Amino acid sequence: MSTLSETFAIELQNVCKTFLSDAHGKPEYAVNAVNLQIRQGEFFTFLGPSGCGKTTTLRMIGGFELPSSGTILLNGQDVSNLPAHRRNINTVFQSYALFPHLRVLENVAFGLAVKRVPKAERLERAMKALEQVRMAHTADRRPSALSGGQQQRIALARALVNEPDVLLLDEPFGALDMKLRREMQLEVKEMQRRLGITFIFVTHDQEEALTMSDRIAVMSSGQVQQVDHPIEIYEKPANRFTAGFIGEMNMLHATVLGVKDGVLLLRTGGSEVPWHGGQMASGEQLIVAMRPEALSIVEQAGDDQVLFKGKVGDAIYIGSDRRYAVHLPTGGHLLVRVPNHAFGAQKILCQGDAVQVACPLAALHFLSH
Ligand code: ADP
Ligand code: MG
């Protein structure tokens, strides 16, 4: 049997960063005990709200910031205290800062000139990097003659020319408009697959993270909440933070009633809900969460569904579907998304209509923290 263990592109072991202390001298953690492993050739994304520690984590991986404690491994080597220029890592920032007086090709070759790579070789490598981002035809232009998306591609080429093991990208599409941003997401993802370089990406945009990533680390308050593939992040959120941050989620408070026929029974939203495999004591509180698209408005309960009775509040038409806020007798409401293709079969509901909302048992998420 093989005893070889995988060498990760990047491994963070208990990495912490504090910049400041509070009024009592207690350190405030920008990054708090982060442990994770990023595989060779992986597209790995840090996703979380502003201020949660994404950039600080990325800067520590790049060597622009040293951890207050913990260890950073690059290809299995401890680089925790190595400066940025001693790590084979490159960074693409949101502001691409191309030199306006240099042609595109010279912009890309600039870093190699600083490293005293001979001229013929650096122009050849710069041309190859431009081909990798499909911008070779702009080699002789000035950056000002290019669109924002094209300039961002040149910034990528400028990083790729160094043939890094790992490329760090901190909100690189932040300055682009929505349509261009979507195009760049698909393009950069395709490029990463083609080149096989490990990409570590930072964004606060969950759709961007879901679109581009092999795996996502969801962060909040300096801590990693969940590391998983996009499908698992969306369909199996590990806790309330991830459930609430990714996509739309209905969350109801629930109380454990007890065990009936070997199944835990909860009370929530005026209904009783079974939790197969759940283990909590009577009286304990938790959250039951449901995606709006998992819910439907029904006349009667089908097999393996729970029903919630309520009254239609707001009804919003958004083109692809209609959203109903169904108010529950216990307070709170459930957001239900009814796709418009269902309308042939389903009547349009009005405010005040009494309805029943069905949720398949398999679509219930039970979140105890
Ligand atoms: P994000 O990129 O997720 O928006 P950051 O990593 O930039 O978050 O910041 C995380 C926290 O660390 C924030 O509270 C921020 O104010 C703080 N922070 C970041 N850099 C510094 C710094 N150089 N000095 C002091 N505090 C900082
Ligand atoms: Mg940031």
Automatic annotation (TrEMBL):
Coiled-coil residue spans: none
Catalytic reaction list: ATP + H2O + polyamine-[polyamine-binding protein]Side 1 = ADP + phosphate + polyamineSide 2 + [polyamine-binding protein]Side 1
Superkingdom, taxonomy of origin: Bacteria
Positions of the ABC transporter domain: 10-246
Cellular component, GO, one term: ATP-binding cassette (ABC) transporter complex
Annotated GO MF terms: ABC-type polyamine transporter activity; ATP binding; ATP hydrolysis activity
EC numbers, comma separated: 7.6.2.11
SUPFAM superfamilies, A to Z: MOP-like (SSF50331), P-loop containing nucleoside triphosphate hydrolases (SSF52540)
Any GO BP: putrescine transport
One Pfam family it belongs to: ABC_tran
Keywords, alphabetical: ATP-binding, Cell membrane, Membrane, Nucleotide-binding, Translocase, Transport
Subunit structure: The complex is composed of two ATP-binding proteins (PotA), two transmembrane proteins (PotB and PotC) and a solute-binding protein (PotD).
Physiological role: Part of the ABC transporter complex PotABCD involved in spermidine/putrescine import. Responsible for energy coupling to the transport system.
Protein family membership: Belongs to the ABC transporter superfamily. Spermidine/putrescine importer (TC 3.A.1.11.1) family.
Protein name according to UniProt: Spermidine/putrescine import ATP-binding protein PotA
Lineage: Bacteria, Pseudomonadati, Pseudomonadota, Gammaproteobacteria, Pseudomonadales
Gene: potA_3
